[in-house]
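Example 9 (inverse folding). The structure is encoded as follows.
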């Protein structure tokens, strides 16, 4: 007989630990297990070990709503975030429910028994566990392989090529000439970190610029409020302050892109050397928030450029050479180490295959209900965060909603709940976002609809009201 639990969570990262903590505190009589494919918890924050790895959202919104992030550090390093996630797991007893080394490969729903049968690989063998409710909290990154396009001639390069997702522990960049290919959050984190760690010189090679915004490394409001009101109250106030500011920046960026472009440029000019080619290296061709903005604490990237330890080159790669990279312009960048900060691959539901009564679920043929359930898939939820705000803001809302569903099922004796798609609602891509990692796979993702509750707002202020007050008998959810 396979083991059975009320709720089975896939993934023991930021989302999975948060989901399990919600069950532990709000539904203490619920049996649950967390299946984690790796041998450690923490997800992204345990996987990524590259120099300087940190949050790209402020910690007072990236932290859980129910457990304050202590202190005034706004953009925290990876080790501190990992400690926070694991401390949360210990505090709520979640760590005792995690099964490590379990790679979920299949999950099959059977309507007759109202159960999921989940198959996982463990040490080369397969095991199964059944559950009344399945909750995918594996994020949307492929943990096995980052996005690594092949460059012409790269096999000729005599130095070392590394991808940040799999940073080698033996890499010492001290005194080395390092070229970081990319312009996203990982690249703007790596460049100043490698420069500070003693690299001979660091060059950020970008095909096109990204919006880079300097923010304070510490939140002075949080620090002052903590002295007056304590950690919990100051966290709540700071969290809402940052939510409102993030929302305002996003809305202004969409409505007045030229204004935001000018403001960001002015900030860049103020922190770079006189006469620096700001429009060459920091003026994107797209509007603000067409892609995610990059935040740098206390302008560390600009300081590295100003003191000469780092350089930005905007050009295209023609070919690798034995000793570096030849650019389309003819310039050659000599390098000992090349870091391909070229992005990540997306993977829905950790790569597991879902089926309902023997029929394989094709995600792109489903519609996402409130961006957390799939049409036609019973007793299933998934957690995916915002692209324009902290991941955990949405993760907490999903957890609260799933708890409501489970309480309703228990109170009414319902065995299943499933969103039923309205054929009159037109479909559009789930993510209206120009980032490469989204565009490469957007055709494989679930769709969203053009009307509620199928439309995705990408707005916490909207969702905080809509999701928390949503009727569970809305005519879309079918209970049985």
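The amino acid assigned to each position is listed next.
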């Amino acid at each position: 007989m396979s083991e059975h639990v009320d709720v089975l969570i896939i993934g023991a990262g930021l989302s999975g630990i948060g989901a399990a903590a919600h069950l532990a505190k709000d539904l203490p009589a619920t049996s649950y297990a967390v299946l984690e494919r790796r041998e450690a918890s923490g997800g992204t924050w345990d996987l990524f070990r590259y120099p300087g790895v940190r949050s790209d959202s402020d910690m007072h919104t990236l932290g859980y709503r129910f457990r304050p992030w202590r202190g005034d550090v706004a953009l925290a390093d990876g080790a501190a975030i990992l400690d926070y996630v694991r401390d949360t797991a210990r505090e709520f007893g979640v760590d005792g429910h995690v099964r490590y080394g379990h790679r979920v490969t299949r999950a099959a729903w059977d309507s007759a028994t109202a159960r999921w049968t989940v198959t996982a690989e463990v040490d080369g063998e397969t095991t199964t566990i059944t559950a009344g409710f399945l909750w995918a909290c594996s994020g949307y990154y492929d943990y096995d392989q980052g996005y690594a396009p092949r460059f012409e001639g790269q096999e000729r390069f005599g130095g070392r090529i590394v991808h940040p997702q799999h940073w080698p522990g033996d890499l010492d960049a001290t005194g080395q000439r390092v070229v970081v290919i990319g312009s996203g959050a990982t690249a703007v984190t790596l460049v100043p970190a490698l420069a500070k760690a003693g690299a001979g010189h660091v060059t950020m090679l970008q095909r096109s610029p990204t919006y880079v915004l300097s923010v304070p490394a510490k939140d002075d409001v949080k620090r002052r409020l903590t002295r007056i009101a304590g950690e919990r109250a100051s966290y709540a106030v700071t969290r809402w302050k940052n939510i409102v500011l993030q929302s305002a920046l996003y809305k202004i960026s969409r409505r007045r892109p030229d204004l935001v472009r000018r403001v960001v440029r002015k900030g860049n000019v103020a922190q770079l050397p006189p006469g620096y080619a700001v429009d060459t290296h920091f003026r994107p061709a797209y509007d603000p928030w067409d892609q995610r903005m990059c935040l740098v604490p206390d302008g560390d990237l600009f300081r590295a450029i100003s003191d000469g330890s780092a350089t930005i080159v905007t050009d295209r790669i023609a070919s690798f050479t034995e000793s570096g990279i030849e650019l389309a312009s003819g310039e050659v960048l000599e390098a000992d180490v090349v870091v391909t900060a070229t992005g990540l691959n997306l993977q829905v539901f950790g790569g597991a295959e879902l089926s309902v009564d023997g029929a394989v679920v094709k995600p792109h043929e489903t519609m996402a209900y409130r961006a957390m359930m799939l049409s036609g898939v019973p007793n299933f939820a998934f957690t995916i965060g915002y692209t324009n705000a902290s991941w955990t803001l949405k993760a907490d809302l999903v957890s609260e909603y799933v708890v409501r569903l489970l309480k309703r099922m228990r109170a009414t004796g319902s065995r299943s709940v499933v969103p039923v798609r309205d054929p009159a609602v037109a479909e559009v891509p789930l993510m209206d976002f120009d980032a490469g990692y989204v565009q490469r796979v957007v055709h494989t993702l679930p769709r969203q609809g053009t009307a509620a509750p199928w439309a995705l707002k990408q707005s916490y202020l909207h969702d905080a009201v809509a999701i928390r007050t949503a009727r569970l008998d809305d005519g879309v959810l079918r209970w049985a």
